[in-house]
Each structure stands twice: as structure tokens, then as C-alpha cells.
What we know:
By secondary structure, the chain is of the alpha+beta class. The protein has helices spanning 64-72, 75-80, 86-97, and strands spanning 8-10, 17-19, 23-28, 32-33, 39-41, 45-48, 56-61. The longest helix is centred in the C-terminal third of the chain and has 12 residues, at 86-97.
Amino acid sequence: MKEKKVPMRKCIGCGEMKPKRELVRVVKAPDTKNENGEITERGELSLDLIGKKPGRGAYVCKNSECFEKAVKAKRFERAFKGQIPQSIFDGIKEELKGFE
């Protein structure tokens, strides 16, 4: 019988390749635009616990240490191509503490 392939993802905090189920996806929702193509509302950053939310995603380990490394090195800003306020990181960090 053929073995199932395990999807691997890279943690943006520690840089290790791990199975997708061991990581948490942080997702930036798509921007909303008006009929002229101008951005009216920026997409929100949140944790994607089921892995199905639409938008750009980045994976991080389920511990706050890796999350802090990613924030300090500005890897989320690079992954999502824009500035992210510290208040959003604080909210995500509190949600992430529930997994430890």
C-alpha cells in the first residue's frame, strides 16, 4: 500500500520544516476594493486554526518563542508585504498561548 505524503511547511520563526499539522497558520485576509480598484479596507491579520481561511498565509510553531523570533526579525511584515501594528501581534500572541 502506498504511504500518504505528509505536507511540510516552514516555520517563519525558527526556519525548520515541520508537518503542516504541527504549525499554526497566520493569515492576512484579502483587501476589499471598490469598483475603481482602490483599496477601501485593509485585510485583517488573524490565526487560522482550520487552515481554510482565504488570504495570504504564513506558518509559525505553536510556541510563543518562535512567534517572538518572527516578530523581532520582521518576518511577518516581509511575508505580508506591509507594516503591521504591534497591537495585532499582542492579540495573536494571546491566542497562541492557548496552544502551549
